[in-house]
Amino acid sequence: MKITTIVSLLSASHVGLTSAFVPASNFARQSTSVSQVVDDKTEVREYFNTEGFNRWNKIYSESDDVNSVQLDIRNGHDQTIQKILNWIKADADIAGKTVCDCGCGVGSLALPLASMGAKVSASDISDAMSSEAARRAKEMGIKAKFYTSDLEGVTGRYDTVTCVDVAIHYPTDKMSEMVTHLCTLAEDRVIISFAPKTWYYVALKKVGEMFPGPSKTTRAYLHEEEVVRRALKEAGFEVAREEMTGTNFYFSRLLEAKRV
Q1: Between β-strands 251-259 and 186-194, what pairing exists: parallel, antiparallel or unpaired?
Q2: 214: number of CA atoms within 13 Å, CB side?
Q3: Residue 131: pLDDT above 50?
Q4: Mean pLDDT lowest among 145-154, 209-218, 232-241
Q5: Which of 67, 105, 217, 223 is most buried, with most CB under 10 Å away?
Q6: Which residues of 181-194 are buried (b: 16+ CB within 10 A; e: fewer)?
Q7: How far is CA 166 from CA 26, 104, 209, 210, in A?
Q8: H or E segment at 243?
C-alpha cells in the first residue's frame, strides 16, 4: 500500500501505502491502555482493505473524484516517484535487474520500473492494494509479480529494494529494524522514503491532531533522519543520492543507499 508515508496532517485524508504523512487516528488519542491499543499492522491492513483502499485507489489514479487536499497529496507522491525514476533513467542499467518493491500500493513505482525492463516483485500488506496493482499490470500488458505480505514477511535477494511512503506506519522503535530488514534483501541498493521528524513537521502534526475528521484512521510516525542513516550505515550501506519533496500536505525525505 503505498501505504504511503504521505502526509495529510492538516486534512481529512490518510496516506497510502505508502514516506509522507498520515493523520493520527482518533483511536490513538482516545486511549493509552495497552489492552485497548490496536496493533499498527492490523490497523493498517484493515484500513487499506476497506475504506482506505477506495479512497487511496482514487488518489493513486487519474480520477477526478478527489478534493484539493487529495490532489495535492497525489502531486506530492507523483513527484517522489518521478525523482526515483529520474535516478533510474540516469543510471540506464535497470533492464534485467531484480527489484523488490515493499509496500507497493497500487503499483505507482513497480509498474513503471517493470515497463523499463526490471524484473519486479512487489508486495503490500493490503490484499486489495496488491490485487489492484496486478489488475493494472495486466491491463497495461506489463509483466510483474504482485502479492500480499507485510514487510517483515518479504524474503529473497534483489539488486534493488524500494520502500516508498511506508515508514509512516512504523513506530519509531521499529524503524531501525525495518531499515535493517530492507538491507538484508538488497544486493546493491535500497531506496526508501519517510516523513522526517523536524520541529516544523512535528508542529504540523500536532495541529492536524486537533482536527480529527472522519477519515483519519491510522497513526502517523515521523522519523529522525539520523536514525535512518545510522541504520543504513550499520547494515553496510552509504547514502549516494537524496531528495526532499514538500507540498502543502505531503512531505517526504527520499534516500538512495548503496552497499559498500
Answers
A1: antiparallel
A2: 2
A3: yes
A4: 209-218
A5: 105
A6: bbbebbeebbbbbb
A7: 20, 9, 20, 24
A8: strand 237-246
Query: Are the beta carbons of 250 and 235 closer than 8 angstroms?
Result: no
pLDDT surpasses 80 at 97: yes
Query: Collapsing DSSP states into helix, strand and coil, what is residue 153?
Result: helix
Each residue's pLDDT tens digit, 2-33 = 434 444 444 333 333 333 433 333 333 344 33
Q: CA–CA separation, 221 vs 69, rounded Å?
A: 20
As given in the structure block, the three cell numbers for residue 140 are: 497495461
What is the per-residue pLDDT for 172? 83
Q: Which of these, 196, 247, 207, lies nearest to 68 by C-alpha position?
A: 247
Helices (H), the chain: 26-30, 40-49, 51-59, 68-91, 110-115, 127-140, 172-185, 199-209, 225-234
